[in-house]
Design goal:
- The structure holds 2 protein chains of 2 kinds.
- Chain A is mainly α.
- Chain A has 9 helices and no strands.
- In chain A, about 85% of the residues lie in helices and about 0% in strands.
- The longest helix of chain A is centred in the middle third of the chain and has 40 residues.
- In chain A, about 45% of the residues are buried.
- Chain B is elongated.
- Chain B has 2 domains: about 35 residues; about 100 residues, no CATH class.
- By secondary structure, chain B is an alpha/beta fold.
- The longest helix of chain B has 26 residues.
- Classes of the chains: A mainly alpha, B alpha/beta.
Chain lengths: ~260, ~150
């Protein structure tokens, strides 16, 4: 019985310790940002790795998400004689929710996992400790550029996601179903607002980029230096980042759209 | 891994694509309506009941959108709803004796204000007041009247 209580207490303490280390890590990363910005080449390399290489999956999935939204929205709205509003439905769902959220989830799977695995493996093969031996700060040299790169990439990817998704909805609604293009765009333009919808969606994606990069790097940095440990860290990184994104999305939605 | 120069080119293209997508969102999808609001002038109208009218609702004349509802407040002295309309500057020749009524778009649609042009030559000035107003039709009230009418 006491063992059970002790195990519970141990788990709680370990969880709190992990949370504390994650917060310490993000504070140190933020402190390392000015130093990392003085070496933009490292950041550009990482933007290439996490951003440019994620473009294909973002563009393809957003096109299909937009097309499905257009089709499903049409089937539902046509019953109410509001088929022209399908543009509004597609644009608002993409700009407010699906753009930032799905981008962050795909980013966590496509780029976050590779960040975790890379950093975890660097730790397991003692590259990070050898850097420290050479008086190179691994937080500045390795972690901060990756953190900044995800912070830059996710908002850009989310904006591309929304724009391409609306294009997909346009292709289905106007090209396939035959809704009037003028009505499609004018309904959308009168319903979508720059400040309430586009800016708030953008703020969401900035927050998600911050969180996705932070969790991925934290899990990699904390990984047990074994092959099993790295694999577990990669899985947990994707799971925790996805959960954090979905939970934060609810919080941000409740705060922003009243 | 691609060469440093190729990486830089790709990252540049990536950032440019992101900015272009942002422009598409602002211009094509949002229509960039509120960053440069069309110049307009305000007129006031008092209604006994605005029903479900909301701020930013359209103001139409002959079915054409000429402005929008700026604010709705209760006038505490008259106990009427004071609705401020913002009419686009290019429609500055609306007659002074124009009437305003609250209509519903479709059976369940959004409520809007319809203006019916009057006959006077003198136009409605900025800050002017629309005298002839007609309140929103509240469905419950009509049903109530119908029911009491049936009882007689």
């Amino acid at each position: 019985m006491t063992d059970l209580v002790a195990a519970l207490g141990q788990r709680t303490l370990l969880g709190l310790q992990g949370l504390g280390r994650a917060v310490v890590l993000v504070l140190r990363l933020l402190a390392a940002v000015p130093a990392a910005l003085r070496r933009p080449r490292l950041i550009i390399e990482q933007v290439y790795a996490v951003g440019v290489l994620s473009m294909v999956i973002i563009v393809v999935s957003s096109l299909f998400v937009g097309m499905v939204l257009g089709l499903q929205g049409y089937y539902t709205l046509v019953d109410f004689g509001a088929a022209e509003s399908v543009g509004t439905l597609v644009a608002l769902s993409l700009v407010r929710e699906l753009g930032p959220v799905v981008t962050a989830l795909l980013f966590a799977g496509r780029a976050g996992s590779s960040l975790t695995a890379e950093v975890g493996l660097m730790k397991a093969t003692e590259q990070l400790s050898s850097m420290e031996m050479m008086a190179v700060d691994p937080e500045r040299r390795i972690l901060a550029p990756r953190f900044i790169a995800s912070f830059i990439s996710v908002p850009l990817l989310a904006v591309v996601f929304s724009a391409v998704g609306v294009l997909g909805g346009y292709l289905v609604a106007v090209g396939m179903i035959g809704i009037d293009a003028g009505a499609f765009w004018s309904n959308m333009q009168s319903a979508v607002s720059v400040r309430d919808d586009i800016l708030n969606g953008f703020i969401k994606s900035v927050v998600f980029g911050f969180v996705a990069g932070w969790i991925a790097l934290h899990k990699g940095y904390e990984a047990e230096p074994t092959s099993q440990g790295v694999s577990r860290a990669t899985t947990m990184g994707v799971v925790h980042a996805s959960l954090a994104v979905l939970g934060l999305d609810f919080l941000l939605t409740a705060l922003m759209f009243d | 891994m691609a060469s440093q120069r190729m990486i830089e080119i790709w990252v540049g293209a990536f950032v440019a694509a992101g900015l272009a997508a942002l422009m598409v969102l602002a211009l094509q999808i949002a229509g960039l309506t509120e960053l440069r609001p069309p110049p307009g002038y305000q007129v006031t109208a008092y209604f006994d009941n605005v029903g479900g009218l909301r701020e930013k609702a359209p103001v139409n004349m002959a079915g054409v959108r000429v402005g929008r509802v700026e604010s709705i407040q209760l006038d505490s002295e008259r106990h009427q709803a004071r609705v401020v309309l913002k009419i686009d500057q290019r429609y500055n020749r609306i007659p002074r004796d124009t009437g305003a009524a609250i209509y519903t778009a479709g059976l369940l649609g959004e409520q809007y204000i319809g203006l019916e042009a009057g006959w006077e030559d003198e136009p409605l000035a900025a800050g002017g007041r629309i005298e002839n107003t007609q309140s929103a039709v509240v469905l419950e009230r009509i049903i109530g009247q119908f029911m009491t009418g049936m009882g007689d």
